[in-house]
Write a structure and sequence with these properties.
Strand 8 and strand 9 form a beta hairpin. The chain has two helices and twelve strands; from the N terminus they run H-E-E-E-E-E-E-H-E-E-E-E-E-E. About 15% of the residues are buried. The protein has a twelve-stranded antiparallel β-sheet. The longest helix is centred in the N-terminal third of the chain and has 9 residues. By secondary structure, it is mainly β. It starts with a helix and ends with a strand.
Length: about 210
């Protein structure tokens, strides 16, 4: 009974999970063949007004875990995800909201720099998002964590960075399923037309 009660509570966190400090949000990571290759855990570290700050940790068997910091602004039903800074030093965010908001005010391109870890080494990465668009305003995504009515968006991303003096460009196509009031519940990443990775919201663990 205690186990079932805890699962019920964990499956229904209050509002956007980005600001829910009472739970760890868990996404299962699958490869292009649908095999589980790891998980992503998000935990809130602090909040300030409408802003929530947290850490995303990628955990894969046989590899060192990698953690990146993230920031989210929640204003009513509108969600803004901080991406980095542009060449002018201004903050760049990607906005999400209900179907009406996404249809009329979606940001379809952005350029920014961010810091990330690649193969255990911290590096600056230049990112370019283009062709961001709403594909559907009513798609259902299911997992053991729940069922959500989602807005599906797609966009192209070009990543450029340097490791040990070697530059590399990476181009991917991203599909996101965003559930208003909950957050991004699924992400598919394609490279050269082939599915590389899926991240699916599969559970919550009480802190």
């Amino acid at each position: 009974f205690i186990f079932l009660t805890a699962m019920k509570v964990a499956a229904n966190p209050p509002g956007y999970y980005y600001k829910d400090a009472s739970h760890v949000t868990i996404k299962t990571i699958y490869d292009g063949k649908g095999e589980v290759i790891g998980r992503q855990e998000y935990v809130v570290t602090r909040t300030a007004g409408n802003w929530a700050y947290g850490k995303n940790t990628i955990i894969k068997p046989g590899e060192d875990s990698e953690t990146t910091e993230s920031a989210y602004q929640i204003d009513g039903t509108k969600l803004s995800i901080y991406m980095g800074k542009n060449e002018s030093g201004q903050d760049v965010v990607l906005d999400y909201g209900d179907a009406s908001y996404m249809a009329n005010r979606i940001i379809n391109q952005a350029n920014f720099e961010t810091t990330n870890k690649v193969a255990g080494k911290e590096m600056k990465i230049s990112c370019s998002i283009t062709s961001r668009k709403v594909v559907s305003s009513n798609e259902v995504i299911k997992s053991e964590a729940g069922q959500w009515n989602c807005i599906r968006t797609e966009y192209d991303v070009e990543l450029r960075g340097r490791v040990l003096g070697i530059g590399f460009p990476v181009n991917v196509h991203v599909i996101e399923w965003f559930a208003p009031g909950v957050g991004i519940v699924r992400t598919d990443i394609y490279r050269k037309g082939k599915l590389q990775e899926t991240r699916l919201l599969t559970g919550f663990r009480q802190v």
